[in-house]
Please model this.
Amino acid sequence: MKRPRRISDVFLVGIPLLFLAYFFAYPLGAILLKSLVTNGRVDLTPFGDVFNRGTLRGAIWFTAWQATASMLLTLAMALPAAYVFARYRFRGKSLMKAAITVPFVLPTVVVGTAFLALLGPTGVVDLSGTVWLILIAHVFFNFAVVVRTVGGFWGNLDPRLEEAARMLGASRWKAFRTITLPLLRPALAAAGSIVFLFTFTSFGVILILGGLRFSTIEVEIYRQTITYLQLPIAAALAVIQLVGVTSILVAYSTFQRRRTIELPLRPSEEVARSPRSTSDRLLVSGTLIISGIFLGTPLALLIVRSLRTGTGFGLAAYRSLATQTSALFVPPIDAIRNSLLIATAATVLAVTIGMMAAVIVAYRTGLFSRAFDVLLMLPLGTSAVTIGFGFLVALGKPVDLRTSPILLPIAHALVAIPFVVRTAVPVMRSVRQDLRDAAAMLGATPARVWRRIDLPMISRAGLIGAGFAFAVSLGEFGATSFLARPATPTLPIAIFRLLGRPGTFPQALALATILMVLTAASMFAIERFRFGEVGEF
Amino acid sequence: MQHMSGARRSSGLILILALALAACSQDTTEPANTQRPEQITLLTHDAFAVSDGILQDFTNETGVEVQILTSDDAGTMLNQAILTKDNPIADVMYGIDNTFLSRALSEGIFEPYTSSSLSAVPESLRAGDQVTPIDYGDVCINYDKAAFENNGPSVPLTLQDLTDPAYGDMLVVEDPATSSPGLAFMLATIAKFGETGDYTWQDYWRDLTTNGVKVDAGWTEAYYSDFSAASDGTRPLVVSYASSPPAEVYYSEVPLDEPPTGVLTDGCFRQVEYAGILAGTGHAEAAGKLIDFMLSPEFQEDMPLNMFVFPARSDATLPSVFAEFATVPDHPETMDPGLIEQHREEWIQQWTEIVRS
Model:
């Protein structure tokens, strides 16, 4: 495969590599070495300790299987919605598309209260103490990952292939299974890998909904570090987590490499149509209603509770947010502004670096490109405690960045880059070479070919990636909570503070509702964003 | 669809970017010239809050500016201080409590300092010359008044009462492995029932487990998902703080004559929060002034309504909502920080074995 020659590989590889080396590999290496080296020698006994303890071995096994189950369940449950959003036009579509990202952003402690109320002892069904509560919460949080990644790709697939199969007598299901599904594979694998990594390092959901029975490597790293101050064991667990994530990523990268096909991509606006037949309408409305109930009920519960006052319903909690700042230390509006600024900076950083890296991953073959791909994804599968403390250990010199506010967007960008890369690469790889050749034959310069053929298709994927990056940053809680940070909190941190004291529950939910609205509005705005001369795609 | 012009879009984007960069860079520069006031950094936990203007008063009095750095909780903060002890990220650390104190002292992260105001603090709160007690709070079982008013059992009076089947499925506690009040309550039971004898703390927890105690990951889940006075939950007894009832009154959106919750004064665990000067600071003198200020009546009297803790100074005036509704147990359980450090992990593991079964 070729790539535009004008852009130098050194530049495209160099900048992402430097960023990841300084802000990921170096801090990670520094904290692991500091924890595992005693008297100048690497001490491997913590690894023995990990494998000798039943609870830790159990956590390793549970981590792997719940992540696999969560990934498969999320793919299965979100695929119909991805299809409906990709293929149909209906009223309120862009608003709904923006709204499905809301769960992805909400702090787990907020969603935890809703899940405990709905699926706890006093709820609709009592699932407390079962693994189902964890799996359902994981699907809830990651639903948007599948809809956006797979749906974004699906929306550009030419439906004529499938229509041809239908015309030749294939049933809807057979056409999907034999034509569409194989074509979707790169996007499915991309979404699946992200969901897997996200749930592999799941922390809040396990802690809040898993009770004493379920524990992941991430939860154990937290306990060993924060409660017991046993850094060597935490480091051994972090290494085991890293090895697990790396082997999954290597397998994924091998799989994806073999499956890529160039595809006739088309603008999504051209592909989508209104539901015509009764079965179309049933499919669209059925999918939307079921997804809406699944995602909407916990959110609605939170909003209703934010409006509940001692005597009835009203905006008292919102009003007291505006007046009573002492519970927060700063006015909530500062937290909103802070979150938006950080999210903007993180998005710019993640999209710039992620798109550069994606070009290399998509157009370059060979061992280097694959290793690069794995490295880009790793931060998503690395323990937040480890990274957070790694910053403290490593970034003191030459410039002391350990307590600098710029660490927040950087930490968020590390988590967001995999999203940008994974949404962009399947699209980049699918751009047909014959289109580029035709344009070149007609006299277009390589740069013009890139701008007129590749860019329009890629920029759409870039926007989806940007939306993810913004959402990741708005909701990020993991690494953020292990940094020593300035007093102005981000929204999730402010919500967490309000949930930590008696009497401020309604205010916490009011702020969570504001975060929901802000998320939906940002996703809506990002979806509408258009680059100057690049048309709709 | 209406499109804004590309140029306007990008200028908007550039503006946002510039704002973001400006916001990010403003605090990173060290004061270079001597005209600017001396700046010190206070590392504290997420619950830290003071009233507007209090820190400004300190700057006006001493010429020292305070920058706040917040950590998630005391455990996270202690880790951060230990990991950076060769090159500290702050000058003063506040919020380390007696459950973590011993580790902090053995790691040598503090520089000795004795505040001139220490004499106003009761002897029982002091802990050597490396840290200064600033405030304390008691972790106690709270009860939902309404649940015990009607035809149910009467309000329990002792920890032992909670093993009575009459209080079955009523108590919710926090996991000591992930929650600070959860750890404090477990320590209270160890201090009260002891490790040896006819009836040990482990026997007590076996009885609680038989009687249907529920364990949640943290205070938030216990209080806001299971405690019947603060949620739709069904449990009228929760491990919380002695200061929770006044907080319920203070934050209530409808004026309350009295709190909806009460405090069981048996089996409370006293958490003392300390401040200390981080060893290796270049601003030891200014750091000492900040600790003195934290013990001043102004700061001490400001703390209760911001952090819902009791001031360490015995002569500090309590706000009316505290004076009226807060309970201070006469004989809270305490434990030597060294003993806690030595057994924390072992005790938590034993506890987990018992309640899991």
Observations:
- The first strand of chain B starts at residue 38 and ends at 45.
- The beta strands of chain B are 38-45, 64-71, 92-97, 110-111, 132-144, 171-174, 214-216, 237-241, 261-278, 310-311.
- Residues 6-25 of chain B form the longest helix (20 residues).
- Confidence is low (pLDDT under 50) at residues 1-33 of chain B.
